[in-house]
Write a structure and sequence with these properties.
Layout: H1 3-11, H2 13-19, H3 25-46, H4 63-84, H5 88-107, H6 113-130, H7 137-155, H8 159-170, H9 172-188, H10 193-219
Helix pairs in contact: 1-3, 3-4, 4-5, 4-6, 5-6, 6-9, 7-8, 7-10
């Protein structure tokens, strides 16, 4: 998924150079996200791809899980700086979040606070720059990630691990889509897509809310996956 950022920059380099502060930082973001994914795979392998609350891939801590958390946050921070790093408060928020993440992880407190702040800022500023509401669906993927991860921990049904990973990795596509829509609208002068995308976002969020709430109890009854390791 991070390679989608590289393809986005290559496709819309001219547009991005006119609209955001540092398009080149998106390459660094992609590299950090790839490294984060690699460390996650290593941690999952150490945990024999069976995730429970007692594993580092679950709720415990570990070296590779810590590196995964750090590089995912750093990738998000690079995206934020790329979008609006010319604003000092944005730059220092990104730097502070990057520095605090290892500290929070070691202390096992507020581990996801920096990622949450940077991720939310990316969505808000992305919408401010590209004016495409479709980017708000990144927030839906965050909720889906937490939803499936909690089901994974509660039930030990490892199929939820795949759904968690899919949800967590799909959010970046909405940034790519918003850039693509904004670039095409600039060339054509047609901005009517924004209204239809508001309807898409609203109906998607409402629909997912009903589906997840109505199926929470049923999904919690799924039996755990047998561990053959």
């Amino acid at each position: 998924m991070p390679l989608a950022i590289v393809m986005m920059v290559e496709k819309h380099s001219g547009f991005l150079s006119e609209t955001i502060d540092r398009p080149d930082f998106l390459y660094y973001a992609s590299g950090c996200l790839i490294l984060g994914s690699l460390f996650e795979i290593i941690q999952n392998t150490k945990d024999r791809w069976y995730i429970t609350a007692e594993t580092a891939s679950g709720k415990e801590s570990g070296l590779f899980d810590g590196l995964f958390t750090f590089f995912i946050l750093t990738g998000q921070a690079f995206i934020l700086i790329a979008l609006m790093g010319n604003a000092n408060w944005i730059l220092w928020t990104a730097v502070l979040a990057t520095l605090m993440t290892p500290i929070f992880y070691i202390k096992e407190q507020f581990v996801f606070l920096p990622t949450s702040i940077i991720g939310l800022l990316n969505v808000i500023i992305g919408f401010y720059i590209f004016s495409d509401p479709i980017i708000f669906l990144q927030l839906a993927t965050v909720v889906m990630t937490l939803y499936f991860f909690n089901l994974l921990i509660r039930t030990k049904a490892q199929s939820f691990h795949g759904l968690t990973a899919l949800s967590a990795s799909s959010g970046i596509w909405f940034l790519v889509l918003s850039v693509d829509n904004a670039a095409q609208a600039q060339m054509s002068g047609n901005f009517y897509y924004q209204l239809s995308n508001w309807l898409i976002v609203a109906s998607t969020l409402i629909g997912l809310s009903f589906i997840f709430l109505l199926n929470w109890k049923r999904l919690n009854q799924i039996g755990e996956t047998k561990n053959y390791s």
